[in-house]
Input
Amino acid sequence: MSEDRNHTQASELLKNSSLYREFQAEREEILRHKWIESEKAGYDIGFERALTDWIVKHRSKWRKARQQLAQLTQA
Output
């Protein structure tokens, strides 16, 4: 029983971490990009292709925008 509770507490801690939230936000953007690019192509381009394409074309700008937003909300 104690092991289950420890696992649940660890899972909650992870979900509440800023690193995990950033990972989730980035994943959502990649999945959005995958959907848009798949619609343009007329077929599912797959996660790996979408990931690579998003990293090359959008990641740095997306991260900079998130950092600026975080700074504004902290001020």
The chain has three helices and no strands. The longest helix spans residues 47-74. The mean pLDDT is 89. Residues 16 and 47 are 25 Å apart (CA to CA).
